């Protein structure tokens, strides 16, 4: 079970929060809360950054091997 110590607070601009709220209100993407949407957005961004970093490393290694 998660405790309060397992979480941190992140502040976002009001305009961004309003956009998130609108997406939730429309309901077509299945998000029920800001936290749910923000957690997924951050998780996906981290995955993309790691993927891109890995690809850059692989490309550098291939250049060095030539």
Describe the structure concisely.
The chain is 68% helix and 0% strand. It has 66 residues and is mostly helical.
Structural class estimated from helices and strands: mainly alpha
Largest sheet: none
Question: Unreliable stretches, pLDDT < 50, 5 or more residues?
Answer: none
Helix content: 55-70%
Rg is: 18 Å
Count of helical stretches: 2
The shape, in one word, is: elongated
Overall structural domain count: 1
What is the arithmetic mean of pLDDT? 88
How many strand segments? 0
The secondary-structure element order is HH
Distance, first to last CA: 51 Å
What percentage of the residues does DSSP assign to strands (E)? under 5%
Describe this structure in words.
With 66 residues, the protein is mainly alpha-helical. It has one domain (9-65). It is 68% helix and 0% strand. It contains 2 helices and no strands. The chain has helices at residues 14-26, 34-65. The longest helix is centred in the C-terminal third of the chain and has 32 residues, at 34-65. The radius of gyration is 18 Å and the shape is elongated. The protein starts with 13 loop residues before the first helix and ends with a helix.
